[in-house]
Design brief:
single chain, two-stranded antiparallel ribbon, flat, mainly alpha, 4 helices
């Protein structure tokens, strides 16, 4: 634990304005190098009906954090599907549309 805390301390010493540890080189590389195994563990747990709320939620956060548009667009699409709230087209900023998702 002390080695891990030392890495956190170093990250903030290097950049006192660090907004997220994933933006530090050490943590970015550590997570990147482990993500294949992380995905395998989460997938196998899902296949076997084993709940892994922390692992799977953290992986979803990681994927969302490093994606510029996926989470917001998915939420907009879900809101449109369930309540016809419309969503903004990325190809035409300022243009909001509704899709008849059920045909």
């Amino acid at each position: 634990r002390s080695a891990f805390l030392s890495n956190i301390k170093k990250a903030f010493e290097k950049n006192s304005d660090l907004e997220n540890l994933l933006l530090d080189d050490f943590f970015r590389d550590a997570i990147h190098n482990c993500q294949e195994s992380w995905r395998i563990v989460v997938a196998k747990a899902v296949e076997n009906g084993i709940p892994t709320p922390c692992f799977s939620t953290a992986l979803a956060f990681y994927d969302g954090y490093r994606s510029a548009v996926v989470p917001a667009n998915l939420i907009q699409a879900q809101r449109d599907y369930f309540g016809a709230h419309t969503y903004e087209l990325l190809a035409k900023p300022g243009t909001f549309v509704h899709t008849n998702w059920t045909g």
